[in-house]
Amino acid sequence: MATALAGGVALSGCGGDDEEPAFQYGVASGDPLADRVILWTHARYPSSADPVVLRWQVAEDAGFARIVASGTVSASAATGHTAKADATGLAPGREYFYRFSAGGTRSAVGSTRTLPANATEVKLAVLSCSNYPAGFFNVYAEVARSDAQFALHLGDYIYEYDAAGFASAGAAALGRSSQPAHELLTLDDYRARHAQYKSDADSKTLHARMPMIAVWDDHEVANDAFKDGAENHDAASEGSWAARRAAALQAYHEWMPIRSGADLGRIYRSFDFGGLLSLHMLDTRLLGRDAQIDIAALAGLAGPAAQAAATAAFSSPTRQLLGSEQAAWLTAQMAASTATWQVLGQQVLTARMEFPVSVLAALNTSDTSPAAQAAGAAAVNDYLTAKATPAGLRTPAQAALMNPAQNPLLGYNLDAWDGYLAARETLLGTALQLGKKLVTLAGDTHNAWHADLSLKGLANPALAGVKVGEEFATSSVSSPGLESFLALPSAQVKAIFEGVVDDLHWMDPSQRGYLKMSFTPTQARGDWFFVDTITRRSYTASLGRTAVYTG
Ligand SMILES: [Fe+2]
After folding, report:
1. 355 pairs with which residues across the strands?
2. How far apart are CA 445 and CA 128, in angstroms?
3. What is residue 302's predicted lDDT score, i.e. its pLDDT?
4. With contact defined as beta carbons under 8 Å apart, do 486 and 419 qualify?
5. Measuring CA to CA, which residue among 79, 81, 71 is closest to residue 15?
6. Which of 29, 32, 259, 450 is the most exposed place for a label (fewest CB within 10 A)?
7. Residue 505, exposed/middle/buried by CB under 10 A (0-12, 13-18, 19+)?
Protein backbone atom coordinates (compact mmCIF):
# COMPACT_ATOMS: atom_id res chain seq x y z
CA MET A 1 0.00 0.00 0.00
CA ALA A 2 2.76 2.42 1.00
CA THR A 3 4.68 1.56 -2.15
CA ALA A 4 1.61 2.05 -4.31
CA LEU A 5 0.95 5.42 -2.67
CA ALA A 6 4.52 6.57 -3.15
CA GLY A 7 4.32 5.46 -6.74
CA GLY A 8 1.11 7.38 -7.22
CA VAL A 9 2.60 10.53 -5.70
CA ALA A 10 5.64 10.19 -7.89
CA LEU A 11 3.46 9.78 -10.97
CA SER A 12 1.32 12.80 -10.22
CA GLY A 13 4.53 14.76 -9.73
CA CYS A 14 5.62 13.80 -13.22
CA GLY A 15 2.87 15.37 -15.24
CA GLY A 16 -0.04 13.00 -14.83
CA ASP A 17 -0.71 9.31 -14.91
CA ASP A 18 0.03 8.50 -18.51
CA GLU A 19 1.79 11.54 -19.89
CA GLU A 20 5.09 11.24 -21.67
CA PRO A 21 7.25 14.34 -22.03
CA ALA A 22 7.89 15.91 -25.42
CA PHE A 23 11.32 16.93 -26.73
CA GLN A 24 10.12 19.74 -28.98
CA TYR A 25 13.39 21.51 -29.68
CA GLY A 26 15.83 18.70 -30.31
CA VAL A 27 19.22 18.41 -28.65
CA ALA A 28 22.39 20.46 -28.70
CA SER A 29 25.93 20.31 -27.38
CA GLY A 30 28.56 22.93 -26.83
CA ASP A 31 31.61 24.32 -25.08
CA PRO A 32 33.69 21.17 -25.60
CA LEU A 33 36.88 20.72 -23.63
CA ALA A 34 39.31 17.81 -23.89
CA ASP A 35 37.36 15.77 -21.31
CA ARG A 36 33.84 17.19 -21.28
CA VAL A 37 31.04 18.79 -23.23
CA ILE A 38 27.76 20.52 -22.39
CA LEU A 39 24.60 18.64 -23.42
CA TRP A 40 21.32 20.53 -23.86
CA THR A 41 17.67 19.78 -24.41
CA HIS A 42 14.18 21.00 -23.62
CA ALA A 43 11.47 18.74 -22.24
CA ARG A 44 8.04 19.24 -20.79
CA TYR A 45 4.80 17.39 -20.24
CA PRO A 46 2.01 18.30 -22.69
CA SER A 47 -0.47 19.39 -20.02
CA SER A 48 1.64 20.09 -16.96
CA ALA A 49 4.49 22.37 -15.95
CA ASP A 50 5.88 19.73 -13.57
CA PRO A 51 9.63 19.13 -13.73
CA VAL A 52 10.77 16.40 -16.10
CA VAL A 53 13.53 14.25 -14.67
CA LEU A 54 15.81 13.36 -17.55
CA ARG A 55 18.43 10.71 -17.88
CA TRP A 56 21.28 11.58 -20.23
CA GLN A 57 23.75 9.18 -21.80
CA VAL A 58 26.97 9.59 -23.78
CA ALA A 59 28.18 6.68 -25.90
CA GLU A 60 31.01 5.88 -28.24
CA ASP A 61 28.57 4.47 -30.78
CA ALA A 62 25.31 5.67 -32.26
CA GLY A 63 23.58 2.50 -31.06
CA PHE A 64 24.52 3.24 -27.41
CA ALA A 65 26.14 -0.15 -26.88
CA ARG A 66 29.22 1.47 -25.31
CA ILE A 67 27.94 4.10 -22.86
CA VAL A 68 30.80 6.03 -21.25
CA ALA A 69 28.96 8.65 -19.20
CA SER A 70 25.45 9.17 -17.86
CA GLY A 71 23.50 11.09 -15.26
CA THR A 72 20.24 12.82 -14.49
CA VAL A 73 19.12 16.41 -14.80
CA SER A 74 15.79 18.15 -14.38
CA ALA A 75 13.97 20.32 -16.92
CA SER A 76 11.74 22.55 -14.81
CA ALA A 77 9.77 25.77 -15.09
CA ALA A 78 12.65 27.58 -13.34
CA THR A 79 14.75 27.16 -16.49
CA GLY A 80 11.94 27.44 -19.04
CA HIS A 81 11.96 23.62 -19.21
CA THR A 82 15.46 23.57 -20.67
CA ALA A 83 18.12 21.30 -19.17
CA LYS A 84 21.89 21.18 -19.41
CA ALA A 85 24.42 18.61 -18.23
CA ASP A 86 28.20 18.81 -18.27
CA ALA A 87 29.26 15.34 -19.39
CA THR A 88 32.72 14.73 -17.95
CA GLY A 89 35.30 11.95 -18.01
CA LEU A 90 35.45 11.82 -21.81
CA ALA A 91 38.52 11.13 -23.95
CA PRO A 92 40.09 13.94 -25.99
CA GLY A 93 39.66 14.42 -29.73
CA ARG A 94 36.88 12.00 -30.44
CA GLU A 95 33.30 11.90 -31.55
CA TYR A 96 30.53 10.87 -29.15
CA PHE A 97 26.79 10.31 -29.34
CA TYR A 98 24.31 11.50 -26.72
CA ARG A 99 20.60 11.41 -25.91
CA PHE A 100 18.13 12.22 -23.18
CA SER A 101 15.25 10.07 -21.96
CA ALA A 102 12.33 10.28 -19.53
CA GLY A 103 9.95 7.45 -18.90
CA GLY A 104 9.65 5.60 -22.18
CA THR A 105 10.41 8.65 -24.30
CA ARG A 106 13.76 9.42 -25.86
CA SER A 107 15.12 12.55 -27.45
CA ALA A 108 16.79 12.59 -30.83
CA VAL A 109 20.40 11.37 -30.82
CA GLY A 110 23.07 14.03 -31.17
CA SER A 111 26.70 13.70 -32.16
CA THR A 112 29.37 15.80 -30.52
CA ARG A 113 33.13 15.99 -30.13
CA THR A 114 35.76 16.75 -27.49
CA LEU A 115 38.73 19.04 -28.06
CA PRO A 116 41.89 17.28 -29.24
CA ALA A 117 44.94 16.71 -27.03
CA ASN A 118 47.13 16.87 -30.14
CA ALA A 119 45.95 18.19 -33.46
CA THR A 120 47.42 18.68 -36.91
CA GLU A 121 44.21 20.14 -38.33
CA VAL A 122 41.11 21.74 -36.83
CA LYS A 123 38.07 22.79 -38.88
CA LEU A 124 35.66 25.39 -37.55
CA ALA A 125 32.41 26.60 -39.14
CA VAL A 126 32.03 30.27 -38.29
CA LEU A 127 28.48 31.66 -38.20
CA SER A 128 26.67 34.86 -37.28
CA CYS A 129 23.40 36.71 -37.63
CA SER A 130 20.75 34.03 -37.97
CA ASN A 131 17.55 36.00 -38.43
CA TYR A 132 14.43 33.80 -38.39
CA PRO A 133 11.98 36.14 -40.20
CA ALA A 134 14.59 37.01 -42.88
CA GLY A 135 14.62 33.52 -44.35
CA PHE A 136 15.37 29.82 -44.03
CA PHE A 137 18.48 28.67 -42.18
CA ASN A 138 19.88 26.92 -45.26
CA VAL A 139 23.33 27.92 -44.08
CA TYR A 140 22.84 25.87 -40.90
CA ALA A 141 21.86 22.88 -43.05
CA GLU A 142 24.97 23.35 -45.16
CA VAL A 143 27.27 23.48 -42.12
CA ALA A 144 25.66 20.29 -40.79
CA ARG A 145 26.53 18.66 -44.10
CA SER A 146 30.11 19.97 -44.12
CA ASP A 147 33.24 18.39 -42.68
CA ALA A 148 33.52 21.11 -40.00
CA GLN A 149 34.17 19.65 -36.55
CA PHE A 150 32.96 22.54 -34.41
CA ALA A 151 30.51 25.40 -35.00
CA LEU A 152 31.26 28.90 -33.76
CA HIS A 153 28.38 31.34 -33.49
CA LEU A 154 29.61 34.90 -33.12
CA GLY A 155 26.29 36.39 -32.14
CA ASP A 156 22.90 37.65 -33.28
CA TYR A 157 21.75 34.09 -32.74
CA ILE A 158 18.28 35.63 -32.24
CA TYR A 159 16.87 39.08 -33.02
CA GLU A 160 14.78 41.07 -30.57
CA TYR A 161 12.51 43.00 -32.95
CA ASP A 162 8.74 42.82 -33.22
CA ALA A 163 7.09 40.93 -36.08
CA ALA A 164 7.16 44.02 -38.31
CA GLY A 165 10.78 44.81 -37.48
CA PHE A 166 14.09 44.49 -39.34
CA ALA A 167 14.16 42.00 -42.22
CA SER A 168 10.55 40.88 -41.68
CA ALA A 169 8.99 41.99 -44.98
CA GLY A 170 8.87 38.47 -46.40
CA ALA A 171 8.37 36.62 -43.12
CA ALA A 172 4.62 35.99 -43.35
CA ALA A 173 4.94 34.50 -46.84
CA LEU A 174 7.70 32.21 -45.57
CA GLY A 175 5.69 31.22 -42.49
CA ARG A 176 8.40 32.74 -40.31
CA SER A 177 6.75 35.70 -38.58
CA SER A 178 8.44 36.46 -35.27
CA GLN A 179 6.96 35.10 -32.06
CA PRO A 180 6.06 36.76 -29.81
CA ALA A 181 4.85 39.45 -32.21
CA HIS A 182 6.04 42.26 -29.94
CA GLU A 183 9.61 43.37 -29.24
CA LEU A 184 11.34 41.30 -26.58
CA LEU A 185 11.54 42.80 -23.08
CA THR A 186 10.79 40.19 -20.43
CA LEU A 187 12.17 36.77 -19.57
CA ASP A 188 9.08 35.12 -21.05
CA ASP A 189 9.56 37.13 -24.25
CA TYR A 190 13.19 36.11 -24.70
CA ARG A 191 12.38 32.48 -23.86
CA ALA A 192 9.60 32.36 -26.44
CA ARG A 193 11.86 33.83 -29.15
CA HIS A 194 14.66 31.38 -28.38
CA ALA A 195 12.08 28.57 -28.56
CA GLN A 196 10.93 29.74 -31.98
CA TYR A 197 14.50 29.78 -33.32
CA LYS A 198 15.20 26.34 -31.82
CA SER A 199 12.02 25.01 -33.46
CA ASP A 200 13.65 25.51 -36.87
CA ALA A 201 14.41 22.18 -38.58
CA ASP A 202 17.82 23.25 -39.87
CA SER A 203 18.78 24.63 -36.47
CA LYS A 204 17.89 21.26 -34.92
CA THR A 205 19.93 19.45 -37.56
CA LEU A 206 23.01 21.59 -37.01
CA HIS A 207 22.86 21.43 -33.22
CA ALA A 208 22.41 17.66 -33.27
CA ARG A 209 25.36 17.29 -35.63
CA MET A 210 28.24 19.13 -33.89
CA PRO A 211 29.07 21.11 -30.76
CA MET A 212 28.64 24.87 -30.86
CA ILE A 213 30.79 27.50 -29.15
CA ALA A 214 28.76 30.69 -29.01
CA VAL A 215 28.95 34.26 -27.81
CA TRP A 216 26.22 36.86 -27.96
CA ASP A 217 26.30 40.08 -29.95
CA ASP A 218 23.81 42.91 -29.50
CA HIS A 219 20.55 41.41 -30.77
CA GLU A 220 20.42 38.72 -28.10
CA VAL A 221 19.41 41.74 -25.96
CA ALA A 222 18.82 44.83 -28.16
CA ASN A 223 20.34 46.55 -31.20
CA ASP A 224 23.68 48.33 -30.79
CA ALA A 225 24.00 47.46 -27.13
CA PHE A 226 26.83 48.74 -24.97
CA LYS A 227 27.57 48.34 -21.29
CA ASP A 228 24.88 50.75 -20.10
CA GLY A 229 22.16 50.56 -22.75
CA ALA A 230 21.37 50.14 -26.42
CA GLU A 231 20.19 52.07 -29.46
CA ASN A 232 17.02 49.95 -29.38
CA HIS A 233 16.29 50.47 -25.70
CA ASP A 234 14.28 53.36 -24.35
CA ALA A 235 14.33 53.35 -20.56
CA ALA A 236 11.37 55.73 -20.37
CA SER A 237 9.01 53.37 -22.19
CA GLU A 238 10.76 50.00 -21.80
CA GLY A 239 12.01 50.06 -18.22
CA SER A 240 15.49 49.57 -16.85
CA TRP A 241 18.30 48.34 -19.07
CA ALA A 242 19.60 46.19 -16.23
CA ALA A 243 16.31 44.28 -15.97
CA ARG A 244 16.05 43.73 -19.71
CA ARG A 245 19.68 42.64 -19.94
CA ALA A 246 19.23 40.21 -17.04
CA ALA A 247 16.14 38.67 -18.66
CA ALA A 248 17.88 38.29 -22.02
CA LEU A 249 21.00 36.77 -20.48
CA GLN A 250 19.04 34.30 -18.39
CA ALA A 251 17.15 33.10 -21.46
CA TYR A 252 20.41 32.88 -23.43
CA HIS A 253 22.02 30.68 -20.80
CA GLU A 254 18.90 28.53 -20.60
CA TRP A 255 18.60 27.98 -24.33
CA MET A 256 22.23 27.82 -25.48
CA PRO A 257 24.65 24.90 -24.92
CA ILE A 258 27.07 27.16 -23.06
CA ARG A 259 28.90 26.32 -19.81
CA SER A 260 27.24 28.78 -17.44
CA GLY A 261 28.97 30.07 -14.33
CA ALA A 262 27.59 32.01 -11.38
CA ASP A 263 28.02 35.30 -13.24
CA LEU A 264 25.82 35.04 -16.35
CA GLY A 265 27.33 38.26 -17.70
CA ARG A 266 30.79 36.75 -18.03
CA ILE A 267 30.98 34.68 -21.21
CA TYR A 268 34.57 35.34 -22.29
CA ARG A 269 36.46 32.06 -22.19
CA SER A 270 39.24 30.13 -23.95
CA PHE A 271 39.38 26.78 -25.74
CA ASP A 272 42.67 24.99 -26.32
CA PHE A 273 42.76 22.84 -29.46
CA GLY A 274 45.70 20.62 -28.61
CA GLY A 275 48.44 23.21 -28.92
CA LEU A 276 47.42 24.07 -32.49
CA LEU A 277 45.21 26.99 -31.63
CA SER A 278 43.93 28.83 -28.62
CA LEU A 279 40.46 30.17 -29.28
CA HIS A 280 39.55 33.13 -27.11
CA MET A 281 35.84 33.90 -27.23
CA LEU A 282 35.21 37.54 -26.32
CA ASP A 283 32.38 39.84 -25.31
CA THR A 284 32.86 43.14 -27.15
CA ARG A 285 29.25 44.06 -26.48
CA LEU A 286 27.82 44.11 -22.98
CA LEU A 287 30.67 44.02 -20.48
CA GLY A 288 33.06 46.87 -21.07
CA ARG A 289 31.95 48.74 -24.18
CA ASP A 290 31.67 52.50 -23.92
CA ALA A 291 28.80 54.10 -25.83
CA GLN A 292 29.22 54.31 -29.60
CA ILE A 293 30.30 57.63 -31.13
CA ASP A 294 27.52 59.23 -33.12
CA ILE A 295 29.17 60.47 -36.29
CA ALA A 296 26.20 62.76 -36.92
CA ALA A 297 26.99 64.52 -33.63
CA LEU A 298 30.35 65.50 -35.06
CA ALA A 299 28.53 67.98 -37.32
CA GLY A 300 29.63 66.33 -40.52
CA LEU A 301 33.19 65.99 -41.61
CA ALA A 302 33.51 69.07 -43.77
CA GLY A 303 36.37 71.24 -42.66
CA PRO A 304 39.52 70.65 -40.65
CA ALA A 305 37.90 71.46 -37.31
CA ALA A 306 35.24 68.76 -37.64
CA GLN A 307 37.84 66.29 -38.90
CA ALA A 308 40.15 67.02 -35.98
CA ALA A 309 37.26 66.65 -33.54
CA ALA A 310 36.31 63.31 -35.10
CA THR A 311 39.88 62.02 -34.97
CA ALA A 312 40.23 63.09 -31.34
CA ALA A 313 36.92 61.49 -30.35
CA PHE A 314 37.76 58.22 -32.11
CA SER A 315 41.25 58.12 -30.62
CA SER A 316 40.42 58.92 -26.99
CA PRO A 317 42.78 56.75 -24.95
CA THR A 318 40.10 56.00 -22.37
CA ARG A 319 37.52 54.50 -24.75
CA GLN A 320 37.08 50.81 -24.05
CA LEU A 321 35.53 47.93 -25.98
CA LEU A 322 36.48 44.87 -23.89
CA GLY A 323 36.80 46.68 -20.58
CA SER A 324 39.95 46.58 -18.50
CA GLU A 325 39.20 43.29 -16.74
CA GLN A 326 38.51 41.31 -19.91
CA ALA A 327 41.45 42.96 -21.73
CA ALA A 328 43.84 41.97 -18.91
CA TRP A 329 42.43 38.44 -18.96
CA LEU A 330 42.98 38.20 -22.73
CA THR A 331 46.56 39.41 -22.46
CA ALA A 332 47.25 36.80 -19.78
CA GLN A 333 45.58 34.05 -21.83
CA MET A 334 47.61 34.86 -24.95
CA ALA A 335 50.84 35.21 -22.97
CA ALA A 336 50.36 31.83 -21.29
CA SER A 337 49.33 29.99 -24.47
CA THR A 338 51.94 27.98 -26.34
CA ALA A 339 49.58 27.24 -29.23
CA THR A 340 50.65 28.06 -32.79
CA TRP A 341 47.65 30.28 -33.46
CA GLN A 342 45.91 32.80 -31.23
CA VAL A 343 42.37 33.13 -32.51
CA LEU A 344 39.86 35.69 -31.30
CA GLY A 345 36.22 34.64 -31.71
CA GLN A 346 34.31 37.87 -31.36
CA GLN A 347 31.50 39.97 -32.71
CA VAL A 348 32.60 43.10 -34.57
CA LEU A 349 35.15 43.82 -37.31
CA THR A 350 38.63 44.33 -35.87
CA ALA A 351 40.45 45.40 -39.04
CA ARG A 352 40.90 49.06 -39.96
CA MET A 353 38.07 49.60 -42.46
CA GLU A 354 39.06 53.19 -42.91
CA PHE A 355 37.95 55.63 -45.57
CA PRO A 356 39.57 59.00 -46.31
CA VAL A 357 37.48 61.92 -45.16
CA SER A 358 37.28 63.16 -48.76
CA VAL A 359 35.29 60.03 -49.61
CA LEU A 360 33.35 59.71 -46.34
CA ALA A 361 32.10 63.29 -46.56
CA ALA A 362 30.99 62.90 -50.19
CA LEU A 363 29.42 59.43 -50.04
CA ASN A 364 25.87 59.91 -48.86
CA THR A 365 24.12 56.57 -48.64
CA SER A 366 20.75 58.12 -47.84
CA ASP A 367 20.71 60.60 -50.74
CA THR A 368 19.99 58.79 -53.99
CA SER A 369 19.67 61.93 -56.13
CA PRO A 370 21.84 61.93 -59.28
CA ALA A 371 23.82 64.94 -58.01
CA ALA A 372 24.66 63.27 -54.69
CA GLN A 373 25.56 60.00 -56.38
CA ALA A 374 27.80 61.82 -58.87
CA ALA A 375 29.58 63.70 -56.09
CA GLY A 376 30.26 60.45 -54.24
CA ALA A 377 31.48 58.73 -57.39
CA ALA A 378 33.79 61.65 -58.19
CA ALA A 379 35.32 61.59 -54.68
CA VAL A 380 35.94 57.85 -54.94
CA ASN A 381 37.38 58.20 -58.42
CA ASP A 382 39.69 61.08 -57.44
CA TYR A 383 40.98 59.13 -54.46
CA LEU A 384 41.51 55.86 -56.36
CA THR A 385 43.28 57.71 -59.17
CA ALA A 386 45.60 59.43 -56.68
CA LYS A 387 46.22 56.11 -54.90
CA ALA A 388 47.15 54.42 -58.20
CA THR A 389 49.53 57.20 -59.18
CA PRO A 390 53.15 56.72 -58.04
CA ALA A 391 53.98 59.22 -55.27
CA GLY A 392 56.51 61.11 -57.39
CA LEU A 393 54.04 61.67 -60.22
CA ARG A 394 51.08 62.95 -58.17
CA THR A 395 49.72 66.45 -58.68
CA PRO A 396 49.65 68.66 -55.56
CA ALA A 397 45.92 67.93 -55.24
CA GLN A 398 46.55 64.18 -55.46
CA ALA A 399 49.38 64.40 -52.94
CA ALA A 400 47.00 66.17 -50.54
CA LEU A 401 44.39 63.43 -50.99
CA MET A 402 47.01 60.82 -50.07
CA ASN A 403 48.38 62.72 -47.08
CA PRO A 404 46.63 61.48 -43.92
CA ALA A 405 47.40 64.76 -42.17
CA GLN A 406 45.31 66.56 -44.79
CA ASN A 407 42.84 63.81 -45.64
CA PRO A 408 42.51 61.73 -42.46
CA LEU A 409 41.48 58.07 -42.56
CA LEU A 410 38.44 57.34 -40.38
CA GLY A 411 36.22 54.35 -39.80
CA TYR A 412 32.61 54.46 -40.97
CA ASN A 413 31.25 51.67 -38.76
CA LEU A 414 31.69 53.14 -35.31
CA ASP A 415 29.96 50.19 -33.64
CA ALA A 416 33.02 48.09 -34.64
CA TRP A 417 36.62 48.29 -33.37
CA ASP A 418 36.97 51.28 -35.76
CA GLY A 419 35.13 53.31 -33.13
CA TYR A 420 37.57 52.23 -30.39
CA LEU A 421 40.98 53.04 -31.81
CA ALA A 422 43.07 53.13 -28.66
CA ALA A 423 41.60 49.85 -27.41
CA ARG A 424 42.40 48.21 -30.77
CA GLU A 425 45.96 49.56 -30.76
CA THR A 426 46.41 48.06 -27.30
CA LEU A 427 45.01 44.69 -28.40
CA LEU A 428 47.05 44.45 -31.60
CA GLY A 429 50.16 45.91 -29.95
CA THR A 430 49.92 43.25 -27.24
CA ALA A 431 49.79 40.44 -29.79
CA LEU A 432 52.78 41.95 -31.61
CA GLN A 433 54.76 42.32 -28.40
CA LEU A 434 54.00 38.72 -27.40
CA GLY A 435 55.12 37.50 -30.84
CA LYS A 436 51.84 35.70 -31.47
CA LYS A 437 50.29 34.62 -34.77
CA LEU A 438 46.96 36.38 -34.55
CA VAL A 439 43.72 35.62 -36.39
CA THR A 440 40.51 37.45 -35.60
CA LEU A 441 37.08 36.09 -36.51
CA ALA A 442 34.12 38.43 -36.73
CA GLY A 443 30.42 38.52 -37.61
CA ASP A 444 27.93 41.35 -37.11
CA THR A 445 28.07 43.03 -40.55
CA HIS A 446 26.08 40.44 -42.56
CA ASN A 447 28.83 40.54 -45.19
CA ALA A 448 32.07 38.60 -45.72
CA TRP A 449 35.51 40.18 -45.31
CA HIS A 450 39.18 39.29 -45.42
CA ALA A 451 41.64 41.93 -44.25
CA ASP A 452 45.02 42.54 -42.68
CA LEU A 453 45.20 43.59 -39.05
CA SER A 454 47.59 46.51 -38.86
CA LEU A 455 48.55 49.09 -36.29
CA LYS A 456 47.61 52.71 -36.88
CA GLY A 457 50.63 53.92 -34.91
CA LEU A 458 48.56 55.98 -32.47
CA ALA A 459 51.02 55.79 -29.59
CA ASN A 460 54.09 55.10 -31.69
CA PRO A 461 54.02 56.46 -35.26
CA ALA A 462 56.94 54.18 -36.16
CA LEU A 463 54.50 51.25 -35.90
CA ALA A 464 51.94 52.71 -38.33
CA GLY A 465 51.00 50.09 -40.89
CA VAL A 466 52.82 47.22 -39.18
CA LYS A 467 50.90 44.01 -39.85
CA VAL A 468 49.97 41.99 -36.78
CA GLY A 469 47.65 39.32 -38.19
CA GLU A 470 44.64 38.76 -40.41
CA GLU A 471 40.89 38.99 -40.01
CA PHE A 472 38.44 36.50 -41.46
CA ALA A 473 34.85 37.69 -41.10
CA THR A 474 31.77 35.68 -41.91
CA SER A 475 28.63 36.75 -43.71
CA SER A 476 25.26 36.22 -42.08
CA VAL A 477 23.15 33.09 -41.96
CA SER A 478 20.13 35.10 -43.13
CA SER A 479 20.23 38.78 -42.11
CA PRO A 480 20.37 41.17 -45.09
CA GLY A 481 23.67 42.96 -45.73
CA LEU A 482 24.94 46.04 -47.50
CA GLU A 483 22.97 45.23 -50.65
CA SER A 484 19.76 45.97 -48.76
CA PHE A 485 20.53 49.54 -47.77
CA LEU A 486 23.14 50.91 -50.19
CA ALA A 487 21.72 52.39 -53.36
CA LEU A 488 24.77 51.28 -55.38
CA PRO A 489 25.01 48.00 -57.32
CA SER A 490 26.88 45.30 -55.39
CA ALA A 491 29.76 45.15 -57.88
CA GLN A 492 30.35 48.86 -57.36
CA VAL A 493 30.18 48.55 -53.56
CA LYS A 494 32.77 45.79 -53.73
CA ALA A 495 35.03 47.84 -56.02
CA ILE A 496 34.86 50.88 -53.73
CA PHE A 497 35.63 48.92 -50.55
CA GLU A 498 38.43 46.88 -52.06
CA GLY A 499 39.93 49.89 -53.81
CA VAL A 500 39.72 52.45 -51.03
CA VAL A 501 40.32 50.46 -47.83
CA ASP A 502 44.07 49.82 -47.55
CA ASP A 503 43.96 46.71 -45.34
CA LEU A 504 41.07 45.00 -47.12
CA HIS A 505 41.96 42.07 -49.41
CA TRP A 506 38.46 41.00 -50.38
CA MET A 507 34.83 41.41 -49.42
CA ASP A 508 31.46 40.11 -50.53
CA PRO A 509 28.64 42.66 -50.39
CA SER A 510 25.56 40.57 -51.00
CA GLN A 511 25.60 36.84 -50.20
CA ARG A 512 24.57 34.76 -47.19
CA GLY A 513 26.82 31.98 -45.97
CA TYR A 514 29.40 30.74 -43.50
CA LEU A 515 33.15 30.74 -43.15
CA LYS A 516 35.07 27.49 -42.75
CA MET A 517 38.38 28.01 -40.99
CA SER A 518 40.97 25.23 -41.25
CA PHE A 519 44.01 25.54 -39.03
CA THR A 520 47.20 23.52 -39.49
CA PRO A 521 50.67 24.16 -38.03
CA THR A 522 51.62 26.10 -41.17
CA GLN A 523 48.46 27.93 -42.22
CA ALA A 524 45.13 29.44 -41.29
CA ARG A 525 42.84 28.94 -44.24
CA GLY A 526 39.45 30.56 -44.73
CA ASP A 527 36.85 29.21 -47.16
CA TRP A 528 33.76 31.36 -47.60
CA PHE A 529 30.74 29.31 -48.68
CA PHE A 530 27.54 30.95 -49.92
CA VAL A 531 24.00 29.69 -50.53
CA ASP A 532 22.05 30.86 -53.58
CA THR A 533 18.79 31.45 -51.70
CA ILE A 534 17.28 31.75 -48.24
CA THR A 535 13.70 32.15 -49.45
CA ARG A 536 13.34 28.57 -50.67
CA ARG A 537 14.11 25.40 -48.76
CA SER A 538 16.01 23.89 -51.67
CA TYR A 539 19.25 25.69 -52.35
CA THR A 540 22.71 25.17 -53.75
CA ALA A 541 25.91 26.14 -51.98
CA SER A 542 29.20 27.13 -53.54
CA LEU A 543 32.68 28.15 -52.49
CA GLY A 544 33.04 31.89 -53.00
CA ARG A 545 36.59 32.55 -51.88
CA THR A 546 39.61 30.93 -50.27
CA ALA A 547 42.32 32.84 -48.42
CA VAL A 548 45.41 31.50 -46.67
CA TYR A 549 47.42 33.20 -43.93
CA THR A 550 50.74 31.63 -43.00
CA GLY A 551 51.50 33.97 -40.11
FE1 LIG B 1 23.25 40.84 -37.16
Report:
1. 410
2. 9
3. 63
4. no
5. 81
6. 259
7. middle
CA dihedral 172, 173, 174, 176 (to 10 degrees): 0
CA 446 – ligand 1 centroid, Å? 6
Give distance in angstroms: CA of 156 to centre of ligand 1. 5
What is the Å distance from ligand 1's center to 439 Cα?
21
Give the distance (Å) from ligand 1 centre to CA of residue 351. Answer: 18
Strand duo 110-113 + 122-127: pairing: unpaired
In this prediction, the residues of the chain whose per-residue pLDDT falls under 50 are 1-13
| 245 CA distance to ligand 1 middle (Å) | 18
Distance, CA 158 to ligand 1 centroid (Å)? Answer: 9
For residue 341, give the H/E element and its range.
Answer: strand 341-345
Q: How far is CA 201 from the centre of its chain?
A: 21
Determine the distance separating the centroid of ligand 1 and the alpha carbon of 128, expressed in angstroms. 7
Give me the pLDDT at residue 347, please. 98
- What is the distance between the alpha carbons of residues 156 and 70, in angstroms, rounded to a whole number? 32
Q: Per-residue pLDDT tens for 83-129?
A: 999 999 999 999 999 999 998 999 999 999 999 999 999 999 999 99
For residue 225, report the distance from its CA to the centre of ligand 1, in Å: 12
Q: Ligand 1 centre and the CA of 131: distance in Å?
A: 8
Domains of the chain, start order: 9-114 (2.60.40.380), 295-549 (3.60.21.70)
